[in-house]
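stage 2 :: seqdesign
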């Protein structure tokens, strides 16, 4: 038979010591001659303010901290009792696991993302999309938990995004897909069962895939428009550089002198991790290289404001140039793909320049142009 489980508060043995000299208090769960486990409290004090398992009166918040520690120990003991009542042999690790599992099940969505998503190895862009999802959900209903999300909730939330927030269809679909990923994570961690999955009976609509792009005529308008504002001029040049190379916003902002290797632009794509080499001395008649020369260094060219700011200024440039197509930064990538297709490059070659993992993704970017070319060819073939 295992020895009884004991609990005590202590300073983390190998914990991080802050600049102010504080360390975190943890609750040590242990058995004599057996296992040990620790549960963090998020309470930080100086070593001289802690003795005999208690925060001393020299700390101004000693009473509040001690009550929090006692409350945590009581909860751990309650989980121990629950395990024993079910006939499970208790160990410190099992008590800790039961406590953490309960914390996750009762956590708000914000706490869930903070404790589960943030420490994960997901990409920063993925984590950012979850925080965007969280803001949208909290705008609709505060203090949500994973277990609050049911089929009816999703229907109401989707309708609210469409009617009240007036979000675009693809934006709504993107948020629904992100929420579905969160639900799947909760199922994997046994927070909810598969039978409780609200997406079992909820069909997420398909995204519309029509991609706009600029024509050569519109691109020339952007090139030729005279801009007195140096900020607009810089943003126009940066956008044109992306049109001439097809690189994404994040990759453009990360450009350094090391990105230029001879006459090639070498990009280690942030989104896919694929290495892309673009012959910028020949693609679009070397226009991208001319823009680098204008700003002396590639770092100077890529040193512009944030995405939202640049999109706003880009639309000002488009208006001054008489371009009616709705301009946003990712349009440069669609434009590059479309114009390369019009110049006769093969699909595999365009796929390499854009760094797409799948050929189908490349096809989406110039499907509209390909159809227009088919119409012209058919019209010419059947000309009366």
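stage 2 :: out
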């Amino acid at each position: 038979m295992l020895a009884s489980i004991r609990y005590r508060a202590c300073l983390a043995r190998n914990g991080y010591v802050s600049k102010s000299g504080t360390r975190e208090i943890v609750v040590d769960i242990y058995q004599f001659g057996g296992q040990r486990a620790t549960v963090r409290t998020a309470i930080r004090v100086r070593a001289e303010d802690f003795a005999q398992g208690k925060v001393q009166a020299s700390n101004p918040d000693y009473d509040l901290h001690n009550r929090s520690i006692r409350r945590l120990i009581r909860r751990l003991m309650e989980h121990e009792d629950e395990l024993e009542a079910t006939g499970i042999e208790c160990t410190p690790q099992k008590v800790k696991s039961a406590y953490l599992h309960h914390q996750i099940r009762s956590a708000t969505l914000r706490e869930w993302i903070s404790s589960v998503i943030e420490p994960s190895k997901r990409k920063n862009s993925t984590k950012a999309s979850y925080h965007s999802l969280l803001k949208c959900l909290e705008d609709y209903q505060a203090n949500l938990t994973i277990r609050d999300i049911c089929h009816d909730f999703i229907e109401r939330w989707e309708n609210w995004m469409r009617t009240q927030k007036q979000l675009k269809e693809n934006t709504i679909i993107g948020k629904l897909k992100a929420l579905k990923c969160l639900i799947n994570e909760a199922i994997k961690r046994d927070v909810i069962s598969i039978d409780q999955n609200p997406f079992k009976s909820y069909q997420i609509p398909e995204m519309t895939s029509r991609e706009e792009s600029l024509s050569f005529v519109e691109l020339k308008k952007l090139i030729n428009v005279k801009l007195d504002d140096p900020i607009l001029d810089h943003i126009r040049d940066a956008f044109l550089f992306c049109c001439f190379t097809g690189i994404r916003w994040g990759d453009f902002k990360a450009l350094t002198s090391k990105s230029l290797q001879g006459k090639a632009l070498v990009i280690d794509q942030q989104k896919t991790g694929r290495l892309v080499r673009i012959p910028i001395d020949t693609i679009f008649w070397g226009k991208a290289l001319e823009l680098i020369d204008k700003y002396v260094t590639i770092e100077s060219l890529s040193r512009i404001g944030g995405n939202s700011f640049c999109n706003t200024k880009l639309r000002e440039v488009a208006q001054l140039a008489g371009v009616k197509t709705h301009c946003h930064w990712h349009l440069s990538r669609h434009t590059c793909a479309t114009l390369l297709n019009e110049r006769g490059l093969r699909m595999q070659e365009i796929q390499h320049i854009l760094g797409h993992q799948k050929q189908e993704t490349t096809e989406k970017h110039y499907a509209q142009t390909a159809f227009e070319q088919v119409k012209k060819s058919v019209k010419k073939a059947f000309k009366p």
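stage 3 :: structure notes
- DSSP finds 15 helices and eight strands in the chain.
- The chain has a mean pLDDT of 87.
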